[in-house]
Amino acid sequence: TSPVRGATSFNVTTAAGDVALCYALTATTMKVVDYFKRDGTALVAAGGGRLRQRAYAAGAAAFTTTSTTYVSVTDMSVALTTTANADLVVYANFVTEIDTSSPIATFAFSLDGAAEVGIKTNQMHTNGVDMIISMFHRFAAVSVAAHTVVLRAKTAAGTLGVGLTGLDRNMMLEEISTT
Fold it and tell me: Which has more confidence, 151 or 49?
């Protein structure tokens, strides 16, 4: 089931490097909504895998769009200045809804303004119903430089809302060593 609006979402990384995308049910319980096995997702290259740094973004205001081409989601931009021999891994977790009878929404990441990657298209079964979306993407062998990753969205029709209460979206960017 989908979390209620305002639920806190977060990522949990295990000692083995697996990633669980979760949201809080109460002050003492959580629900795992997605789980990614390190050995099945190529989150890190062989021989590497050390976390060098991490940055976060959290939604602070409601975002809506009627655009049928990609637009940047407000407050969903994270920047890091990378070091040598690294990958960037980005995670996003958010609640979305759409107000049309054919609710198709598409989400993706953009690195430094480049074309969208990690594309995830979702069709919600009923208009106006909240749906939690969890996604991630690995940018392999990025250059040593300042980088910015942005969550982008578009809709096939109607008005797409992301984090309508303002707090229902989070993004995390990690620099992972490859050597």
Answer: 151
